[in-house]
Structure formats: C-alpha cells, structure tokens
Design brief:
It is built from 9 helices and 2 strands, in the order H-H-H-H-H-H-H-E-H-H-E. By secondary structure, the protein is mainly alpha-helical. It folds into 2 domains: 56 residues, Homeodomain-like (Arc Repressor Mutant, subunit A), CATH 1.10.10.60; 126 residues, Tetracycline Repressor, domain 2 (Orthogonal Bundle). The protein has a two-stranded antiparallel ribbon. Helix 1 packs across helix 2, helix 2 packs across helix 3 and helix 7 crosses helix 8. The radius of gyration is 20 Å and the shape is elongated.
Length: 190
C-alpha cells in the first residue's frame, strides 16, 4: 500500500475512533492526512468503503494468541500470561475496538466480526478451563468463567484507555488478574 493511502487510513482511524463514523467528514480525514479530498475518494471510493477497509485492515486477530496445553503446576502462571497477552491485544487494537463499538449498528457486517473476535478468545479460554477442571475447583463453569474473564478484561481496557496510558492500564490488568486468580480456583484435594 502506498504512503498516501497509509496516511489516509491512519488519519481516518484516529478520527473514527474518537468521533464515530457520522461525525467525521471526508474533508476532515483529508485535512488530517494532509491530502486533497479528491485523493481520498480516488483511493477509497466512499467514506463507507474507507471505514470498512480500515476495519478489515486493522482488525484484531485473536487466533494469534497461543494457548498452552494445561499444566497443573503452571495453571496460574499460564492464565496470568494469557490474560496479559489478551490485554495487550486489546491495547494494540484499542482504536479499532472503539471505532467499531461506536458504529456497530451502522455496519452489521462489522458488528458480526467484532462480536466473533472475543467469542474466539472465550472459546479458546473455555477449552483451557475445561482441561483445568479435572485438577482444579473452578468458581464457575469453564465456559462461563472464560466469558466473564474476556468480557471484563476487554471492558476494563477500553474504559481505562480513555484516561490513562498503556502502562497504567497494564498495571491495573496485572492487579486485576492477581485478584481474579485468587478467587477462581484451588487445587482439588487428592
């Protein structure tokens, strides 16, 4: 992709994530990208096409998260590492997440993808918890516990990013995980 398109995509991501689709004009995107509005239309056709390309280009990839095989001795460390990696995924994609949440109803095709992405993580974490259930007493059923963890983690990251930097958000997530791990499980008596 050429430099001009990259500038337009970057400017559009910033503006859409901050204001939403309806509140952003093609003129404001062109100005922020320091290009002519005609160049924007030549490159992407319409504002809607630009938005959809932006979403697909920068959309998070939950399948890149590597889930370890369950290990009794590594359970808490594995969960902590996994949740920090997932929080980092959310942080790296915070603008696209915000953009998508604001405009999900205007773009049903994006809403479907946005809802699918956390579900992939929930399914993967649920499978991990099903393996753990043999050795640990979990506070919830594995699938429910996975959903609670992923949804609350994503919500925390999205919320905290409104008023603090990435490091403070990750510090909060680390404390959150520590508290969560204390409450979700204990080894079954032998």
């Amino acid at each position: 992709m050429d430099e001009t398109k990259e500038k337009i995509l970057s400017a559009a991501l910033d503006l859409f994530s901050e204001k939403g689709f309806t509140a952003v004009s093609t003129r404001s995107i062109a100005e922020a990208a320091q290009v002519n509005e005609v160049t924007l239309f030549r490159s992407f056709g319409t504002k809607r096409e630009l938005y959809i390309e932006l979403f697909h280009r920068f959309s998070m990839k939950p399948e890149n998260i590597k889930f370890p095989s369950f290990s009794v001795d590594q359970f808490h460390d594995d969960i902590k590492e996994l949740l920090l990696e997932i929080a980092h995924l959310f942080l790296c994609n915070i603008k696209i997440i915000r953009m998508s949440i604001k405009d999900m109803k205007k773009f049903p095709e994006i809403g479907e993808v946005l809802q699918k992405q956390p579900k992939v993580l929930i399914t993967m974490l649920g499978k991990y918890f099903h393996s753990a259930k043999k050795e640990y007493e979990l506070a919830e059923e594995p699938d429910s516990l996975a959903e609670i963890m992923i949804v609350s983690l994503m919500g925390s990251v999205v919320h905290l990013q409104h008023y603090q930097d990435d490091q403070k958000t990750l510090d909060f997530v680390s404390r959150y995980i520590k508290v969560l791990l204390k409450s979700i499980s204990r080894k079954k008596a032998q």
